[in-house]
Amino acid sequence: MTAEIIHGKQIAQDIRAELQQEVAALVAKGIRPGLGVILVGSDPASTSYVTAKEKACEEIGIYSDDNRLPAETTQEELLAKVAEMNADPKINGILVQLPLPKHIDEAAVLMAIDPSKDVDGFHPVNVGKMVVGEKAFLPCTPHGVIQMLLRSGVETSGAHAVVVGRSNIVGKPVANMLVQKQKGGDATVTVCHTRTRDLAGHVRQADIVIAAAGRPNTITADMVKPGAVVIDVGVNRIEDASKKSGFRLVGDVDFDAVAEVASKITPVPGGVGPMTITMLLWNTVESAKQANGLA
Ligand code: GUN
């Protein structure tokens, strides 16, 4: 392998250590940042994400208010819980784990979160502020990607970044952040998706590839320009009888082969994954500072 591995796990630990100090300084002033977490139903992946989020809060001293609601929870009940958290001064950030059950209107729930507590950065007010380059809560996974690029010395200014995937959670916001006139931005950005005609042709032009398609082996070695930086946002469960859980995680990139061509690459697991929760902690600390006139 020739590529340098970008260890998201290490970068995430570094940022968490910085946040832990900030939390300790806030607690010394009588301010404990608080995160309200809502999980509806018991999807195994969502349950494990939510558990990891709560554990991460505890580790750095953030108060977490854990709400696990049954799959039959009505939209009215969920909206009432969100309203309660909007009004609760102990809660600086509200996280409603997605996806929600089909009978609930996801957009309506996200709209109901007070934008000043929207630490996921999914409320249209925060999305709009991000797009026009105003200070906003940035969505955690794409913001984690930008932090990884910055902290591993990847120059985005003037680079051609090709984003594969156009979700509201990753593809669209990461493309937007990369194009902003700021540090970690100033890239020329191409967004590819399921209707793109010549995916390989576009990816071959990239200095930076952001793979966020949600499909294993979307990015193969023949599609990567020698020396490109490859960030794999994919988290795909593949059946694996040799594992106790019965599955293993793979990204969207054919890691072993692409690592022979790229200059830097993120692994799965241990790459972008740990950054998502870290940026949630970051936003929660930021929100607590803002609520107390400290930011
Ligand atoms: N589901 C998958 N990713 C996310 C995320 O970043 N936040 C929330 N709330 N739900 C998710």
Q: How do you describe this structure in short?
A:
With 295 residues, the chain is α/β, with parallel strands linked by helices.
Structure description:
By secondary structure, the chain is of the alpha/beta class. The protein has 2 domains: 30-131 and 276-291, Leucine Dehydrogenase, chain A, domain 1 (Rossmann fold, 3-Layer(aba) Sandwich); 140-270, Rossmann fold. The chain contains 10 helices and 11 strands. The strands form 3 sheets. The protein has a 6-stranded parallel β-sheet with strand order 1-11-8-7-5-6. A 3-stranded parallel β-sheet has the order 3-2-4, with helices on both faces. Helix 6 (140-151) packs across helix 10 (273-291). The model has no long low-confidence stretch (mean pLDDT 97). Guanine is lined by residues 95-98, 120, 140-141, 169, 276.
Q: Topology of this structure?
A:
Elements: E1 4-5, H1 8-28, E2 34-40, H2 44-60, E3 63-69, H3 75-87, E4 93-96, H4 106-112, H5 124-132, H6 140-151, E5 160-164, H7 171-179, E6 188-192, H8 199-203, E7 208-211, E8 229-232, E9 236-239, E10 247-250, H9 255-258, E11 264-265, H10 273-291
Parallel strand pairs: 1-11, 2-3, 2-4, 5-6, 5-7, 7-8, 8-11
Antiparallel strand pairs: 9-10
The structure holds guanine.
Residues 95-98, 120, 140-141, 169, 276 line the site of guanine (GUN).
